Backbone:
């Protein structure tokens, strides 16, 4: 096998642990210098490849790369940019191959969600067509936890932990205030289509620490009357309650409870602000004093409370991607395969990208309680191991020490390309 | 000195460390059983005293009381209930004395903010008038950091740390996304009148890790044109920016930028939702894609990222309150006195309540940069030590182990009293 360089890029919304995957890719590649030359990263994701804006990760020290494991966000920049079908957008795919050829790149590691898995698959298909060999490996990442085949997605466990911890803390707070003040606390969490993140709010309550929590899932059509009755009954019984609402909750008419009308580059509706909608419903109908929060980026960037399980899996999948490449694999994605719930055991497996691309994994209906407002024991058994363990970053003067890399540019060899 | 029982109550909005003060009070009282008999807590704050709804903290083990140090919220329940002037509300004050007398209470420890300091002072005055001796000691607590004389208030340092850490993390996130997606991230933080919490967002950026952050303080009248110009210039220079906006920001007309029209029991406007207002201004005028978050209770309940300095001071002031009582002091409040910034040194001092009650400490103008959008070095020197050190709670199965006490009721001796 001739020595080739590798290309790595981050795609879509970043997470608390996507850099841990980058760390796994780069550290593992550095251990195989006989087969993998340089590791180039795309500045701002795939756009960096298209515009030949490559970063030489070799300019960063082993210590800096190791610190990626503790640093949230996308160290090389990410982008929301979906390559369309091969026929519609042949120029872009050909440009990718041209850039890879110019920089002797034989390995394409793409770290993203469902859309990126699709791009990754197409790159490998085109490489075959054009006769320039590229091994395309997808490294899964998404806080939404909606990729198929893999038991879970790196990024999700840490958001889940943030949400579970925060809902527990806020519930304790509301309980203290409920006698004369706030009785209902509403927190909005991410999850455009799938309620995995909202479900994690249910973990805040367990047998050691029962808390009255109502969850609004995007999978369950919102019914105002049923919801208000649930809130009222819960407050009457416990004196207060917390409501965890997914940004993606829709009414029975199929419309988002709150839609700002803005769409992102993938054409997805850009949501936010369902918490105040729900909180005001409670106030208007029941008169309970409320508070509401919208976690937004705070939840997915919260490396300070990352799940150790999640960090380990993110790293392991980055490492596995390189190992799969070295084994000659192509158009695949390393995955987490669960071996047992209790004790939690997992191993790295492999999925074919053709089975991954453009498939969304929703919450199974039996993960949501019959009344639609909570999680079942089955869901709890699935979620609980994913938030296990803490993995604190290092601190200096009270603040986490997050690394910023040099991100040194690789000299260009080709002409300009407009994206 | 005849042996007397003690009464302890929590007042107003709770914090991540008010229970650390409770821990300091109870553990210290337990060490002086020759002088202090039982420690009774008011269930739901002062309402518990008025309605003779007392909790016997003696029913909880040393381990449970020690765990208070790691548990956010108010373990005995708090309340928003301000006793009015002695003349207007003599019945209530007399009732307090009656309850204290019935339960042989000689020490009144009141853990709250400015309103509670005022109540505490009045209790001591009335006790003198009615000839029933009560030593009233106020234990400071407020995330708003707006009490006078004390260098800082327990509760603030932990919110400040949460905000500084979260703004750093979210800024890293936005930086990754800015090329094709979000360029402006807006986070709303607490601080009704004083910008201390918003200022803490400025700590996210330091010489090791510079970040483009714009702060909107309640002390600076909001000027839309200047703000938009600042955002535009910052995005043009850095590619993105984070905006930290205090819930209490007012326009030049003196009106809150966002006022839900709801008022709490103290008559304070109940705010929330200024983040979307500001974010939409940016979108409408500049067209930048935005995200926004409202931290609300998540910030003040976030014991998982509490400041070690804050926890130590909260405990120390609870302990000092008991020690002051044992020395025969009355109508006082233990305070934090700063001895030096670097290295940070502090000691516990004492303030007379008559100098504390109903005085609000605002941010000095020279803590805010000339342009009104940032913090000065002087402010940084003040804030930096307060977020120093981590003090993680214990975890089980990925979640913090927060204690819930028995809160066993003390048998009543008096008739009913309506509040």
Residues:
């Amino acid at each position: 096998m001739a020595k080739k360089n590798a290309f790595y890029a981050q795609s879509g919304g970043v997470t608390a642990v996507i850099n841990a995957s980058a760390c796994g890719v780069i550290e593992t590649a550095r251990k195989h210098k006989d087969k993998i030359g340089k590791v180039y990263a795309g500045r701002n994701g795939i756009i960096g490849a298209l515009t030949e804006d490559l970063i030489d990760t070799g300019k960063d020290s082993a210590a800096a790369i190791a610190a990626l494991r503790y640093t949230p966000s996308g160290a090389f920049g990410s982008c929301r940019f979906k390559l369309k079908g091969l026929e519609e957008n042949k120029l872009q795919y050909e440009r990718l191959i041209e850039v890879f050829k110019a920089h002797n790149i034989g390995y394409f590691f793409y770290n993203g969600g469902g859309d990126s898995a699709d791009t990754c698959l197409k790159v490998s298909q085109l490489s075959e067509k054009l006769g320039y060999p590229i091994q395309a490996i997808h490294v899964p990442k998404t806080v939404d936890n909606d990729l198929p085949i893999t038991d879970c997605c790196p990024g999700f466990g840490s958001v889940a932990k943030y949400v579970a911890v925060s809902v527990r803390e806020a519930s304790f707070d509301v309980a203290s205030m409920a006698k004369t003040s706030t009785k209902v606390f509403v927190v909005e969490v991410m999850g455009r289509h799938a309620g995995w993140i909202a479900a994690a709010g249910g973990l805040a309550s367990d047998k050691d620490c029962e808390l009255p929590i109502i969850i609004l899932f995007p999978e369950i059509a919102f019914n105002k009357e049923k919801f208000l009755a649930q809130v009222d009954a819960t407050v009457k019984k416990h004196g207060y309650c917390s409501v965890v609402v997914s940004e993606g909750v829709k009414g029975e008419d199929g419309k988002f409870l709150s839609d700002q009308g803005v769409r992102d580059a993938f054409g997805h509706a850009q949501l936010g602000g369902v918490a105040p909608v729900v909180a005001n419903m409670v106030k208007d109908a029941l008169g309970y004093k409320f508070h509401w929060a919208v976690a937004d980026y705070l939840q997915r960037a919260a490396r300070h409370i990352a799940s150790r399980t999640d960090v380990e899996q993110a790293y392991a999948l980055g490492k596995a991607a390189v190992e799969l490449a070295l084994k000659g694999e192509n158009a695949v994605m390393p995955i987490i395969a669960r071996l047992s719930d209790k004790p939690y055991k997992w191993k790295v497996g492999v999925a074919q990208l053709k089975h991954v691309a453009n498939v969304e994994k929703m919450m199974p209906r039996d993960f949501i309680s019959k009344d639609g407002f909570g999680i079942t024991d089955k869901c709890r058994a699935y979620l609980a191991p994913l938030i296990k363990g803490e993995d604190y970053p290092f601190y200096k003067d009270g603040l986490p020490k997050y690394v910023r890399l040099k991100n040194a540019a690789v000299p260009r060899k080709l002409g300009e390309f407009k994206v």
Q: What stands out?
A: Residues 260-265 of chain A have pLDDT under 50 and may be disordered. Chain A touches chain B through 83 residues (CB under 8 Å).
